[in-house]
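[step 3/7] fold_predict: job queued, chain A
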Amino acid sequence: MIRDITLGQYFPGDTIIHRLDPRVKITLTMLYIIILFMINGPIPYLIMTVFLSVAIYLSKINLRLIFKGLRPILILLVFTTMLNIFYTQGGTVLLNIGFVTVTTHGIYMAFFIILRLILLISVSFVMLTYTTSPIMLTDGLESLLGPFKKLKFPAHELAMMMTIALRFIPTLMEETDRIMSAQKSRGADFETGSILKRAKALIPVLIPLFIGAFRRAEELAIAMECRCYRGGQGRTRLRVLVLDKKDYAVTILTLAVFAISIVMSYTIVWGVITR
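[step 4/7] structure written:
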């Protein structure tokens, strides 16, 4: 399970998705997530699914990486499905056993909530972590937060902290896997017994993991100080972010797709209400 976590990993490439300005990718990803919570109905979700499928195809990211990244949230998906199927009222009753009632509306809601979660996480992988290097992600975040600097908002520091956190997720996962392997070789059991027993078995893993994380943080701070790091003021960049034609074209096309999804969603909802 630890090896399945791919959040924070960057896969270099020379596709149009990789070459997009990080500010464009961050903005469009946030809009995509917002619109996922605004739309309703099968057609708008189909449009958003096709859009993400095209983005995955253009980025040339292997689908196995997407599924591998979704595997850690499998429990959350199953739990969400059960809640919506058994506790959502409305529609035709398909099954009624005691306090458990399964309706067509419950199945409908469960399907679209699961689809929403999958799309939300997948777009974050494809448009951000998988196709954007940590340095470019930092520069993009800082540029977008730049206007808030006039209000004394620490844009550079916040962008740096978020990027470092994403960057060290794979490192911490590898260290966790290494510690668990060492504990297993000494007879530790993390897979059998009750939930409480398995939770107690993780204590010998968490203690050295936290110690290692603090040690890495201290080493990183010392390394940054040795390189005379003093925050974002007066810093220059090897690559200056400049929007070009492809960024404008992708933005306009994406906004058009988003607008169509919203219009289709509210048209369908209004048609149902006035029917």
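[step 5/7] annotate
Strands lie at 93-97, 100-103.
The longest helix spans residues 155-185.
exit 0
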